[in-house]
């Protein structure tokens, strides 16, 4: 079985277009800032892009803010997918991808944890090594996490360590969610991915290794959200450990 097609060996060209999929839930305060930063960084570097906001009917008026931003930046730059309710990140990526017109897909959070200044670095890393995937890593030199208390740092480190030992994926940050993918690679990986939540990001890397996709890493700093509520819970930690266990026995 091979998942490689002729198009995978294609190098980047000046026709490259980057689709940024931005899932939002209760991000009305963060959205104008993240969109401004994206536009600023990408225009400065002459990168062709579009942003797809996948908005799940947030009660805080995120949709109205998205509409206003679309008016400011243009329909070609900001696209909005409005869904009826909170349906989760996995399906947000799938649905967002269906609307995309780029040949590259960037997944990132809208809560300012992921700084758009790293996007040009992802792209140049991809071009240098002709990688299929670039992942931002918080766990290599130059990377880091800001705003997390000791407990959450420890949880994140331990979680990443357990998964790295169990799954040996060849990347240093398994649960990161700031990544660049060739569109057809992301489509393939999502079609075989079973997990949800934090395990979703981890399974993407494990499957990528199974399919022999090449992965490059760029150190990123990760900043915890300032606006909006954190959604991590002890349930999620338990689900995570279950996920590592299931992945371990399924590969
Ligand atoms: N469309 C959509 N977006 C979501 C959903 N859940 C989370 N998001 C968005 O996905 C991104 C990541 O979610 P976060 O809640 O920041 O998850 P996290 O970073 O793991 O946890 P905290 O930042 O601590 O809350 C953010 O942009 C959220 O607004 C969802 O069900 N639907
Ligand atoms: C979203 O915001 C509403 C109020 O604006 C709040 O009641 C709800 O708990 C928030 N949901 C999440 C998941 O943050
Ligand atoms: C990946 O590479 C290994 C080693 O070269 C090979 O055995 C395996 O069949 C490849 N897998 C796929 C899906 O191409
Ligand atoms: Mg977050």
From TrEMBL:
GO CC entries: endoplasmic reticulum membrane
Tell me yes or no: is Amino-acid biosynthesis among this UniProt entry's keywords.
no
Superkingdom of this entry's organism?
Eukaryota
Q: Which SUPFAM superfamilies match?
A: Nucleotide-diphospho-sugar transferases (SSF53448)
Cofactor(s) named in the record: Ca(2+); Mn(2+); Mg(2+)
Would the keyword Glycosyltransferase turn up in this protein's UniProt record? yes
Which keywords are on file for this protein?
Endoplasmic reticulum, Glycosyltransferase, Magnesium, Manganese, Metal-binding, Transferase
EC numbers listed for it are 2.4.1.83
Role this protein plays? Transfers mannose from GDP-mannose to dolichol monophosphate to form dolichol phosphate mannose (Dol-P-Man) which is the mannosyl donor in pathways leading to N-glycosylation, glycosyl phosphatidylinositol membrane anchoring, and O-mannosylation of proteins.
Q: How does it assemble?
A: Component of the dolichol-phosphate mannose (DPM) synthase complex.
Alphabetized PANTHER family for the sequence: DOLICHOL-PHOSPHATE MANNOSYLTRANSFERASE SUBUNIT 1 (PTHR43398:SF1)
Its name, as the record gives it, is Dolichol-phosphate mannosyltransferase subunit 1
Q: Which organism is it from?
A: Tieghemostelium lacteum
